[in-house]
């Protein structure tokens, strides 16, 4: 029984880490490599992870390999609608736990397909989650607040891909989506937005996106004719210009070396979407070749100084091009008590107030300031 409890504990730790909580980096593990650079390719990432893996108890040496899978040798993914509203949450960790056991739950207040937009808020709000996340654990705090403010709210689980389809190790856990090719996720978002517009009769939507969700939205605007369907893009900690692969590499090493065998001896690594989000990747060269923005869209990009994934955090900020407006907001400006990191910013009262102000600056001009602890979150209630 003791051994079982110990294994469960290690598994829970691995689960927490794999969602993006790079605890090892926060504790200084791997800081000697902090200045290293890794080429933005799957093979380079696999080699870097393999170099730091400890031998197994039987002496065998685990290694990370590249295997993009798919029936045609190309990563594949699908999307699905979250169904059945889960409970409202005020902190990330319990929301994550619920999302593991209810991976397809809708955030509270979302996906009520009979919702009729009001004259005050004629644009429905579409929520886009990040890598290794889902609609529920990303928006269990924000979605009900948008719904209570009077918005029709919709969310989709995009980029759903299995281990053998190129999704990497994340989908071994329930509800770890946003792992398929970003181009596929962008098309899935286009199809979802089209359905939202048809169901509500609206002419446009507003998008609120976290992490990779902002990058998917950006691709949708630029390459899937999304600009004519979107009024506002509000992003939180989004990887608009990429992120370092060091966090992902340290994450893979740490989980495996703690005894949670996510890599095994011949497993794929992190999934194509995470490699695409490496700064300097060919994906970003294409995405931002003509600038950060498209005409006719109002952008708000929210970053946190304590973001351990989109780091340095100012990479989340955008530069306005012709016909677009950009408001880059640092979460801690005017509120040093907010210690939100990459995940817990989604459970920050201040972040919610910034989102509401971006969508309706006249109706929601005030910004809240509450203590929101790093790693745990708490909706300002701790």
Could you characterize what this model shows?
It is a single chain. With 382 residues, the protein is α/β, with parallel strands linked by helices. Helix content is 31%, strand content 10%. Strands 1-3-2-4-5-6-7 form a seven-stranded mixed sheet, with helices on both faces. Helix 8 links the parallel strand 4 and strand 5. Helix 1 packs antiparallel against helix 9, helix 3 crosses helix 9 and helix 7 crosses helix 8. It is globular, with a radius of gyration of 20 Å. It starts with a helix and ends in a 23-residue tail after the last helix. The N terminus is likely disordered.
The major sheet is characterized as:
7 strands, mixed
Structural class: alpha/beta
The value of Rg in angstroms is 20 Å
Proportion of residues in β-strands: 5-15%
Low-confidence stretches: 1-35, 260-267
Q: Terminal Cα separation, in Å?
A: 34 Å
What order do the helices and strands follow?
Answer: HHHEHEHHEHEHEHHHEEH
Number of strands: 7
Total helical segments: 12
Strand order of the largest sheet: 1-3-2-4-5-6-7
Average pLDDT reading: 81
Helix percent band = 25-40%
Which overall shape is indicated by the principal axes computed on the Cα atoms?
A: globular
Helix-strand blueprint:
Elements: H1 2-18, H2 23-26, H3 42-51, E1 78-80, H4 92-101, E2 125-128, H5 135-139, H6 142-149, E3 153-160, H7 182-200, E4 205-210, H8 212-223, E5 230-236, H9 246-257, H10 272-276, H11 282-287, E6 298-303, E7 325-330, H12 349-359
Parallel strand pairs: 2-3, 2-4, 4-5, 5-6, 6-7
Antiparallel strand pairs: 1-3
Helix pairs in contact: 1-9, 3-9, 7-8
